[in-house]
Amino acid sequence: MLRARCSAGCPCERRSVSDLVVAAFDFDGTLSSRDNLLPFLVTVAGRGAVARALLRSAPDMTRRRRDDVKTRLSMLLAGRDVRDVDDQAVRFAADVVADHLRDDVLARADWHAEQGHRRVIVSASYECYLTPVAARIGFDAALGTRLEVDGGRLTGRLDGPNLRRAEKVRRLDEWLGRRSATVWAYGDSAGDRELLARADQAVRVGRRRLGTPATGERVAR
User: Fold this and answer.
1) pLDDT at 25
2) Contact, 210 vs 203, CB < 8 A?
3) How far apart are the first and last CA of the chain?
4) Per-residue confidence at 199, pLDDT binned at 50, 70, 90?
5) Which of 56, 124, 193, 198 has the greatest number of CB atoms lying within 10 Å of its CB?
């Protein structure tokens, strides 16, 4: 576990000690070593149903219409009891935490906790399994793509936009409310670009393992 304190020159040191510091982490490819949407849908709907939905989504996938693909795949959940899906999400989260998290990024999250920083997941993954993941690893909140519920059953539609790109910034700022905060952000893809740009300290996560933050750590552009 990392035990270093914020180094000289860290953005946290340029603010009043009373100000809030928040570390916002993308999930798929950042905290987690894989994409988790399809494995979750396989858990709930079965491998065959997911394969057929992917075939129907092929034209949108080739055109990189990620939001349209997410909308089509989410229809696999239509009509399912939200309590059953939430139970499956809790079990799925336990598996992800046990086997599919990056230990180096978790160590960086632990470092933030030792500095007294708040930690939040901000991801396009479904919030139904991000919330129990966040609880298991001691994060303060999880902001993810929400599923619409009507009469206790999922409609198969999203409740709000797919949480990527500018929507990540909007939801993080909504969560912060009127609180002034120094923001660290961690991400690995184009879907994190706006979140990284919004941050005081942005860290692009790649294959290289993260270590203890250093003075003047390179900001992603």
Assistant:
1) 98
2) yes
3) 28
4) very high
5) 124
Q: Give the rounded percent of residues in the chain with a pLDDT score beyond 70.
A: 86
What is residue 160's three-state secondary structure? coil
The answer to whether residues 186 and 105 touch, using CB atoms and an 8 Å cutoff, is yes
| Cα separations in angstroms, 39 against 35, 87, 89, 98, 130 | 8, 15, 11, 15, 13
Q: What is the mean pLDDT of the chain?
A: 89
The reported pLDDT for the residue numbered 12 is 52
Domains and CATH numbers, the chain: 11-204 (3.40.50.1000)
Q: Cα separations (Å) of 144 from 12, 21, 55, 84?
A: 26, 20, 25, 19
Give residues with Cβ within 8 angstroms of 122, minimum separation 6: 24, 25, 26, 143, 144, 163, 168, 171, 172, 185, 195
Main-chain dihedrals φ then ψ at residue 139, nearest 5 degrees: -80, 160
Contact 13, 6 (CB under 8 A): yes
pLDDT higher than 60, residue 123 = yes
Distances (CA, A) of 155 to 111, 160, 192: 40, 13, 28
